[in-house]
Amino acid sequence: MSVTSDSVKKAYRRYARYYDLVFGAVFHPGRRTAIEHLHCRAGDRILEVGVGTGLSLAMYPQEVKVVGIDLSGDMLKLAKKRIEDEPLPQVEALLQMDAQQMSFPDNSFDSVVAMYVASVVPDARKLVDEIRRVCKPGGKIVFLNHFQNKNPLIRKAEALVQRLAKHIGFHPDFPLSHFLEQTGFEVTTAIPVNVLDYWTVLVGVNDKKPR
């Protein structure tokens, strides 16, 4: 079963109230590593694609401006509640938006980070092309995602779970080689993160060349 925008919304409507409890601590090291590799500078305007419930927002320095987008209105409600409870001056805006078709003008951001999103969107190529478009030339682009495991036994399990992709809202069977070939994203640094190094932070520089 394939993932669609509607199936993602439905899946995260189910996850929203439990997301922080289930995925907060276990995904924290990856979020921290991804933001560290943005090398934020005072005055930077940063886009976080797939901001979810806003678990990462407090990790950005107060000297930057962060715009977070997410397809799920249910997740964004929790992110907005978070910044009401814990004022975060670095947060410029939280917007409901499809990452494959953003409404921002070209070159709107100094850097872009997409955490746990690449295997969620229906079309990773559209995602990366849009990120390139809204990021300034030479800006940092960072992805944090699960990619297909190299262990053959785990790969078989991922292939079985892939049949449920429409219901769980992401592709468990998601090869890194396919992502790079499809999008043309050039990785300068790759860092394994989280439990058993099952997720990877990919760092690159915006070359402004849509594929």
Features:
Rossmann fold; 37% helix; 211 residues; 7-stranded mixed β-sheet; 7 strands; alpha/beta
Hey, roughly how much beta strand do the residues contain? 15-25%
Tell me, what's the shape? globular
CATH architecture: 3-Layer(aba) Sandwich
Instruction: Supply the CATH superfamily name.
Output: Vaccinia Virus protein VP39
* CATH topology call: Rossmann fold
Q: Spans of 5+ residues with little confidence (pLDDT < 50)?
A: 151-171
Question: What's the gyration radius in Å?
Answer: 16 Å
> What is the end-to-end distance?
26 Å
Q: What class do helices, strands and sheet pairing give?
A: alpha/beta
Q: Trace the largest sheet across and list its strands.
A: 3-2-1-4-5-7-6
Question: What would you note in describing this structure?
Answer:
37% of the residues lie in helices and 23% in strands. It is an alpha/beta fold and 211 residues long. It has one domain: Vaccinia Virus protein VP39 (Rossmann fold, 3-Layer(aba) Sandwich), CATH 3.40.50. It has a 7-stranded mixed beta sheet with strand order 3-2-1-4-5-7-6. Helix 3 links the parallel strand 4 (109-115) and strand 5 (135-146). The longest helix is centred in the N-terminal third of the chain and has 32 residues, at 5-36. The radius of gyration is 16 Å and the shape is globular.
Topology at a glance:
Blueprint: H1 5-36, E1 45-49, E2 65-70, H2 73-85, E3 91-96, E4 109-115, H3 124-134, E5 135-146, H4 152-162, H5 165-168, H6 176-183, E6 189-193, E7 199-205
Parallel strand pairs: 1-2, 1-4, 2-3, 4-5
Antiparallel strand pairs: 5-7, 6-7
Helix pairs in contact: 1-2
